[in-house]
Specification:
This protein is of the alpha/beta class. The protein contains 4 helices and 7 strands; from the N terminus they run αβαβαββαβββ. α1 packs parallel to α2. It is globular, with a radius of gyration of 14 Å.
């Protein structure tokens, strides 16, 4: 159960579903949710066995919603205010980012994760960033999500 409060994300969008499908293919480990919004992906990752799960967002309402939704769903999630493009990010096994393509590509340049599940863009778009290789893709209703791995 997710209550977005004043944050973005109810979990109903195709990009969220695609991201979750790719996340389920991975061995659980540490996870960073960049732009966590209401915490849908953070909570789901914790329920899938990822730990620790860290959510970051530039919106205080998103942090509040993520922590509240984690509590309601019995998930252990840490969340704090940070800018994924400007602040130092924690090193994790996996990162998820359901944001626009331009933000994904800039984020990947400084991301300290072995794998990344990215979405938030149309199926005609695909992230291309030096140092990352494409592993798999899911598409639905004109949207896409990609699993990337450090090259």
């Amino acid at each position: 159960m997710i209550d977005p409060g004043r944050a973005f994300g109810t979990g109903a969008h195709a990009t969220t579903h695609l991201t979750l499908e790719l996340l389920q293919e991975l061995e659980p480990g540490s996870l960073l949710d960049v732009g966590c919004g209401s915490g849908v992906l953070s909570v789901a990752a914790a329920k899938l066995g990822f730990e620790p799960v860290i959510g970051i967002d530039i919106d205080d309402a998103a942090i509040e919603a993520t922590l509240a939704n984690a509590t309601v769903n019995g998930a252990i999630v840490t969340a704090f205010r940070a800018d994924g493009l400007a602040d130092a990010l924690p090193t994790t096994d996996v990162a998820v980012a359901n944001v626009s393509l331009d933000v994904v590509e800039r984020l990947l340049l400084g991301l300290a994760a072995g794998r990344a599940v990215t979405s938030g863009y149309l199926e005609r778009d695909e992230p291309h960033v030096e140092g990352w290789r494409h592993i798999s893709r899911r598409e639905r209703d004109g949207w896409a999500a990609d699993l990337l791995e450090r090259a």
